Backbone:
């Protein structure tokens, strides 16, 4: 639902441009909403990520999903472009918490030997959401009197349903164990203070790794948003295909993403996290000509399938790679915040692509069209190269048993209890002596 809700805008850029005013300038303005959503996701990652590490994975996730459902519904009722931008900015805050909570919750409950595979499956929920949205955009939206708003109505309902479903499953094992060990006996203020003390220690120790992870995620997000967000617009405006055909192309591309993410996630368990990412980047760069040069539908969608296989193949490694690199007790906030700060840096990707492409013109059968193909080809070539080099400069901790770590503040809380106990014991001896 994270993927569905976000890509509802990118799938309906042309319809939104017509709804809020016609012309190529409006397509650039609609892409601004994607930028705002990405910018504000880091705020949500901080809020919900810290809540997930402090109070558990379950209820922060449920609240987060309900916030997204409300804002998705509100998007459909925006009558002015300004209100649309405001709601999508708030939507970014809601969306920012989902990834970190999901990755930490899912992977810490999986056997270590299966985490590569399930990292790929988990991450491709994002591509699957895109796939579902594209199917609805192709099959439901054209036949509905509500037009593109049906995407948001359906998205809100499905997201709310996922929130209700999450209520039926237990808390993560790590937090259940902390509760058994007396974690609930620590007062609320003390718990927050111990948590923040732990966080300060982690920042002092892991600050270099934080910077590395943020830049890594910035490159990853540039890669995905450059190849995905304006793809339907590229198919319609540059290649001249209908909205129906662009939705079909999106569905085929996202099928490649689902297969690629699962495949590469699985093999990262054997070849290593970094090696898998680097191979996917190299092969993805080699496939760029097939992605942009053909003009027939069959050739273009073949290129899209293979390119997204590699893009999301690299992405399939990310959830487990970041969780293994994280401080064990901050696996909701560290990956989520690094991911969303990277998103914030890459936020202008869609707008950069749209602005440059709309300024470049090509003539096809006497018709002037914006040239999204050359823009995307150059941007993706640079991004693939930078990501490959930056990944090679990093490290990995494949096989980490992070599920055995205590929750943030728990260890210090136990130490504080022992110190207090020793103090009371000394006072009792002194009183007896007096």
Residues:
């Amino acid at each position: 639902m994270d993927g569905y809700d976000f890509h509802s805008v990118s799938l309906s850029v042309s319809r939104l441009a017509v709804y809020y005013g016609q012309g190529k300038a409006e397509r650039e303005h609609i892409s601004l909403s994607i930028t705002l959503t990405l910018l504000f996701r880091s705020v949500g990652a901080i809020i919900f990520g810290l809540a997930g590490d402090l109070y558990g994975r379950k209820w922060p996730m449920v609240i987060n999903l309900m916030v997204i459902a409300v804002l998705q519904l509100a998007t459909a009722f925006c009558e002015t472009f300004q209100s649309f931008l405001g709601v999508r900015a708030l939507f970014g805050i809601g969306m920012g918490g989902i990834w970190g909570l999901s990755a930490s919750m899912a992977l810490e409950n999986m056997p270590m030997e299966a985490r590569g595979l399930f990292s790929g499956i988990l991450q491709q929920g994002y591509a699957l959401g895109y796939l579902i949205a594209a199917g609805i955009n192709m099959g439901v939206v054209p036949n509905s009197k509500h037009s593109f708003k049906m995407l948001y109505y359906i998205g809100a309902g499905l997201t709310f349903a996922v929130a209700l479903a999450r209520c039926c499953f237990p808390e993560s094992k790590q937090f259940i164990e902390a509760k058994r060990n007396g974690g609930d006996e620590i007062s609320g203020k003390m718990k927050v203070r111990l948590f923040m003390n732990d966080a300060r220690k982690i920042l002092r120790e892991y600050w270099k790794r934080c910077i590395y992870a943020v830049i890594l995620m910035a490159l990853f997000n540039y890669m995905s948003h450059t190849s995905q967000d304006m793809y339907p617009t590229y198919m319609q405006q540059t290649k001249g295909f209908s909205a129906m055909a662009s939705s079909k192309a999106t569905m085929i591309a996202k099928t490649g993403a689902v297969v690629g993410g699962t495949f590469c996630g699985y093999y990262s368990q054997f070849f290593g996290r970094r090696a898998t990412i680097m191979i996917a980047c190299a092969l993805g760069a080699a496939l760029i000509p097939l992605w942009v040069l053909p003009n027939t539908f069959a050739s273009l969608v073949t290129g899209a399938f293979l390119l997204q296989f590699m893009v999301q193949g690299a992405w399939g490694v990310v959830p487990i790679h970041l969780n293994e690199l994280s401080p064990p007790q901050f696996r909701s906030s560290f990956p989520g915040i690094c991911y969303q700060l990277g998103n914030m840096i890459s936020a202008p990707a869609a707008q950069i692509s749209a602005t440059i492409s709309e300024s470049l013109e090509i003539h096809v059968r006497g018709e002037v069209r914006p040239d999204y193909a050359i823009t995307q080809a150059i941007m993706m070539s640079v991004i693939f190269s930078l990501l490959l080099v930056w990944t090679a400069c990093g490290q990995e901790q494949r096989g980490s048993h992070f599920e055995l770590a205590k929750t943030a503040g728990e260890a210090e809380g136990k130490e504080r209890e022992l110190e207090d106990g020793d103090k009371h014991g000394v006072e009792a001896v002194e009183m007896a002596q007096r």
Remarks:
- The first helix runs from residue 2 to 10.
- The two ends are 68 Å apart (CA to CA).
- The chain has a mean pLDDT of 83.
